[in-house]
Specification:
single chain; alpha+beta; Metal Binding Protein, Guanine Nucleotide Exchange Factor, Chain A; six-stranded antiparallel sheet; three-stranded antiparallel sheet; globular
């Protein structure tokens, strides 16, 4: 085997190992998120009680913090997922299979994002929903990382990366909002 062939083969193996550890995701997180810093301004959201009752539409200031401020508020995993567009390992959180009633709020800003009433078991190992609690409360952006195009789901209030949406979900929408549990805070519905 020539030296050139050996080095080429070693590069392929090393590159594959790097990619399998999330290499491109890390590059995307470093480049993509820094290029998409939140801009000041207002956003229209729908407020919900912790019981999941729709309260009212409101205009609120977009939540903007520095990375240092987010790191003080969030765990390392939450920061990686929400602020660097990371993805937690599948099946790493018990919430992917939880069937409790309640709502899921953004771990960064407490914006209501999903209702447990629209949650389903997608078999993917991540919490999955067929629609958000209110369209205004999430934003969809094009994600071109990992050599493919996907629709990224972000919190409208603070631009936290929450997950991705795919068109292979159940009726009535046919959508699968595949979310990172680290980006969500579950609020259990009070017993009545």
């Amino acid at each position: 085997m020539s030296r050139r062939a050996f080095l080429f083969g070693a590069g392929i193996v090393g590159g594959a190992a790097w990619l399998s550890r999330g290499g491109w995701a890390s590059v995307y997180a470093a480049l993509g998120r820094s290029a998409r810093k939140s801009q000041p301004g207002e956003v229209t959201l729908v407020e919900f009680s912790d019981a999941g009752e729709r309260l009212r539409k409101v205009k609120v200031a977009r939540v903007i913090k520095t990375d240092a401020e987010w790191k003080k508020q969030l765990t390392a995993q939450q920061f990686y997922v929400t602020r660097q567009a990371g993805t937690e390992p599948a099946f790493s959180s018990a919430s992917w299979k939880s069937k409790e009633k309640g709502i899921y709020r953004c771990v960064c800003c407490d914006n209501a994002l999903f209702s447990a009433a629209t949650k389903f078991d997608s078999g993917t190992g991540w919490p999955s929903f067929w629609e958000p609690i209110a369209r205004e409360n999430v934003r969809i952006d094009r994600d071109a990382s990992l050599g493919m195009f996907r629709d990224e789901v972000l919190c409208s209030k603070c631009d936290a990366h929450v997950g991705h949406v795919f068109d292979d979900g159940p009726p009535p929408t046919g959508l699968r909002y595949c979310m990172n549990a680290a980006a969500l805070r579950f609020v259990k519905a009070a017993a009545r």
